[in-house]
Amino acid sequence: MNYESEKSNKVYIYGEIVSEAVFSHEVYGESFYEFFVRVLRLSGQADILPVTVSERLMEDGGLHKGAFISAVGQFRSYNKIENGKSRLMLTVFVRELPQGEAAKNPNNIILSGYICKPPVYRTTPFNREIADLLIAVNRSYNKSDYIPCIAWGRNARFVKHLEVGERIALSGRIQSREYQKKISETETKTMTAYEVSVSKLAIIGSEEDFDLEEEFAIYGSSSKAADVGEDAASAHGVE
User: In terms of C-beta distances under 8 Å and separation of at least 24 residues, what long-range contacts does 22-29 make, across chains too?
Assistant: First the structure.
């Protein structure tokens, strides 16, 4: 992975492993495993996030159910065929397990990518403004990750005017959200969606005039900024 792609997609999480590791896939003889990590918010609620780890890190990190993990990596997407249909899957792909004291912010992500679908703006019954957007983030070897994001309040009003192809940078946290999917007229299924809840964003024209590491320091955010939502997003505003 080259340096620029690493800067464009960086995640830090700290939490408790809440499931056993299961085999995910193999690449060039190296096996990868997936488990779920419970990451607390300031509100006391928690996000349950899928995490993918190489067998090399599994051997060295003491990663088992009930253990706590401090991990740095990327938020990646891939397509999985289910019942003949392609479904976008998301996971935190771990690249390193930093040792020592955990960062103040247990759930932090920075992304730099391109708007690849027109943003969808709406208001809730409580008159809260929300905008959904899908960001394409370039990766090495001509691959891209497609990351769903959600903006609130003032940020939502801003992103609703963005056009497909515009490049933006953002920071926030990864959140899990349960919803009901209608299977038939009489049956529904509980599903889990994963998305980035945006706390801060900016339009950028080129890498020369915008420094992701400086603007969105992944370890430098205060714990207060970690629990983003309608009020937090509005407080941060658009920068």
Answer: 24/52
